[in-house]
Structures are given as structure tokens and as C-alpha cells.
Amino acid sequence: MTLQIHPLHPNFAAEVTGLAINRPLTQTEIAAIEAGMDRHAVLVFRDQPLTDDQQLAFSRNFGTIEITLARQMAKPGDTRLREEMGDISNLDANNQLRARDDARRLYALGNRLWHADASFRAEGATYSLLSARIVPGSGGNTEFADMRAAYDALDAKTKAEIEDLVTEHSIAFSRGELGFAEFNQEHSAKLNPIRHPLVLTHPVTGRKSLFLSAHIGGIVGWPVPEARAFIRDLTEHATQRQFVHAHQWRVNDLVMWDNRTTMHRARRYNDAAEIRDLRRASLRGAGPYVPQALAAE
């Protein structure tokens, strides 16, 4: 079969067919996927049964895998996957459903806010690759929003206003929105705000996009309440239905997205009774986009 890419939405997101990703890829196949990511920002690979090793091998075709912040801050013995794998599930280290008041479950509820993975790191993240191993009977979809189309739809005055704005990102901001503050003080340095531009230019296409995330807690030089109200307005604009594609998970789906040009969020499901086991590899970005020394000003 020949690799083909089929659009799923007028602006972005597409499905890849004619390719098995549990084997080594050719350079031609890798280039085709990268071109598809540049064009569509979200690629869906259906019917791809993968082991963790195979998922990591596929991911390494496109960059260096990062260790997630959640894994870095996890207590010894509180993880069930190897350190390169992000555990996007409601399971504990013994593969049992987490209790309603379990701190890891409450921390993970932040994934239901619109965000870009690892924007709270200076280097950010390029692609995330999420594989579905077990999915609930209903709910638990992942929604994606196209930040390029959202930027294009802004009026000229707003584009001029935001062109040089710099935002501050921290995992503490997004979790604080939900009332979660159970961070160990030994990890306090990882919670310090990181600065990123509000507008990014894609390094290949040259196309501009909003760089929004629930992790944003401020805009440099702005009063905090004004900054947060403005970011909320931009997020409401950027997540209008015409900019959003909802992915309904099936077992053995792999979805790959570009964190520089999209936001995403998980949707609610009955996590007290149903298992949702998704596993993510994230690729380290090429940042910092803004010299972090500015944070000391």
C-alpha cells in the first residue's frame, strides 16, 4: 500500500493510511509524515497495535524524547511505565483505578484544560505522539484547536497588539485554575514561570500561530488580572468550533500533533469505573524562544 493523507477538517487534522508504524520507516516515509505535520498539524494513524518500544522507536524518527514533568516529580514506586512514556491514564502503579482523591488523578485533571504540552519548559515540545491501549465506552475524546487558523482570523489591530508580547507559563498556573496545589517543595524550581512569545512563526512553513496554553499565568509588563483576562479572551476566540477537531479514540489509534501550532484538551469520562489507558511520547523542542534570563528582570 502507498502512504496517503486524507484531511479530516477544513483547516487541519488528517488521517494517514497505507503505513504500518510498528516497523522501521524509510526516509521517504519520514519525510512524508513531516510534510503532513507541517500542513495538517495533527495526524491520525488508525489500527496501529504498538508496544511501548515500538511507539518510542516510531517517535524517535522525529526528534529526541523528553521525560515528562509528571514523571520527574513522581514518587518512587508510583509509576507503571518506563520513564520515556507519559502515562495518560487513570491507573496506579498496580494497574488499579486511582481513587477519586488520589493526587495523581487530580493533577491529571489539568489535561482537560486547553493547553500545549510542555509549554512550561524553556525548550517547549515539538510533537506529542499518543497511543490508545484501552479506551472507555463513552467520553474521553481529545479535542484539538488550530492556532494557525485562529491567528489568521484575528483582526489587524489585534495582530499588531500581540506581535511582540511575551507570556509566562508554569504548570502551577494551570493546576491552580482547578484548585490543585499539592506540589512537593523539592520541585519548586520546576514551577518557576517560563517565558514564550504569544505569537510563533513555524520554522518550515513560515506561518504564524498563537501560542496559547492553560499554563499561561501572565504577560510580561502587564498587570496580572488584565493579562489573564486577555489570554482568556484569546483562548475563547481560538477554540471556537470552526477551529476545533474532536478525535474519538479507538483502541490502537496513534495521534501525533504539533504543540507549536495546536492546543488540545481531554474530555470528561467516567474515570471512577472505566479504564482509559493512553501512552504518550513527547519530543523536546528547539527553544528557548525567549532568553530566560529576562525572567530575572
Describe the structure.
With 297 residues, the protein is an alpha+beta fold. The chain is built from 8 helices and 15 strands. It is globular, with a radius of gyration of 19 Å. Residues 293-297 have low confidence and may be disordered.
What's the gist of this structure?
The chain has 297 residues and is an alpha+beta fold.
What is the rounded distance between the termini? 56 Å
SS elements, strand count: 15
Structural class: alpha+beta
**Which geometry do the CA atoms define?**
globular
Instruction: Report the CATH superfamily.
Output: Clavaminate synthase-like
Strand content: 15-25%
Residues in helix, %: 10-25%
CATH class term: Alpha Beta
Q: The biggest beta sheet, please?
A: 7 strands, mixed
Give the helix tally. Answer: 8
Radius of gyration: 19 Å
CATH topology: Double-stranded beta-helix
Low-pLDDT parts are 293-297
CATH architecture label name: 4-Layer Sandwich
Query: Roughly what is the average pLDDT, rounded to an integer?
Result: 94
Spatial order of the strands forming the largest sheet: 1-2-3-13-5-15-4
H/E series, N to C? EEHEHHEHEEHHEHEEEEHEEEE
Number of domains: 1
Give the secondary structure arrangement, pairings included.
Blueprint: E1 4-7, E2 14-17, H1 27-40, E3 42-45, H2 52-59, H3 69-73, E4 86-89, H4 103-108, E5 125-134, E6 142-146, H5 147-152, H6 156-162, E7 166-169, H7 171-177, E8 194-197, E9 199-201, E10 208-210, E11 216-219, H8 224-238, E12 244-247, E13 254-258, E14 262-266, E15 277-284
Parallel strand pairs: 2-3
Antiparallel strand pairs: 1-2, 3-13, 4-15, 5-13, 5-15, 6-12, 6-14, 7-8, 7-11, 9-10
